[in-house]
């Protein structure tokens, strides 16, 4: 690790045609990507993976990233959670609140064995959390999902109807899972939840060997006619292996649809 800036721009520009899909429209301008990582190998791999998505600026520290953003405002920021001068959660907060950087989508890169990394990234407001090592297809899909449309699209979700245990406020509450993605879940539960309330979940994906027990944060909550809350939650403490299980489940089950939380 060193303090020298290694940022540079790749002379690739995306010239995607303008079209419509549902109520979303494709963005007409090139996506400028800012990739922040203090490990040269990850910067090089990331720039290769993303080169066809738009110009890629590279930085090896938070301070270099901020300087780069002042010079060329990014369309999206991808940053490691552990940099020499600042953690990724704080970088995310800075980009989300800086008056001149336009609140770009932020993707944070977590350690595969660290549910705590994932939780800190979500609490900081990251639009997406990916685990290292980087997977080319997932990285590209995340950038496109967050930048190709005027309104960022949600993650693919699978319909499911399974019982769930929700541990909240010292109680264990029984509910029903309605749909799930690798990033979040939609449930019906007999309790009114507050926005940003944190809970622990325990459910399975149809078979006992596909049991999932993450923590989660309430993103939205609506009271239904039967007195139960319809609740959207985003996973907090969850590891890479469990995310992979969820990804495979969503890929294998239909129908799919896209919704919030991401």
How many separate helices? 6
CATH architecture of the largest domain: 3-Layer(aba) Sandwich
Envelope shape: elongated
Name the CATH superfamily assignment of the largest domain: Response regulator
What is the fold-level CATH name, i.e. the topology of the largest domain?
Answer: Rossmann fold
Number of strands: 15
Largest sheet data: 6 strands, antiparallel, barrel
Low-confidence stretches: 1-27
Provide the β-strand percentage band.
Answer: 25-35%
Query: What is the C-alpha radius of gyration, as a whole number of Å?
Result: 19 Å
Major sheet strand order = 8-9-10-14-13-11
Give the number of domains: 2
How far apart lie the N and C ends? 33 Å
CATH class (first level) name of the largest domain: Alpha Beta
Layout of strands and helices, then pairs:
Blueprint: E1 20-21, E2 24-25, E3 33-36, H1 40-50, E4 56-59, H2 62-71, E5 76-80, H3 88-97, E6 106-110, H4 115-123, E7 128-131, H5 136-147, E8 156-168, E9 171-180, E10 184-189, E11 198-204, E12 211-212, E13 215-223, E14 229-235, H6 240-252, E15 256-258
Parallel strand pairs: 3-4, 3-5, 5-6, 6-7
Antiparallel strand pairs: 1-2, 8-9, 8-11, 8-15, 9-10, 10-14, 11-12, 11-13, 13-14
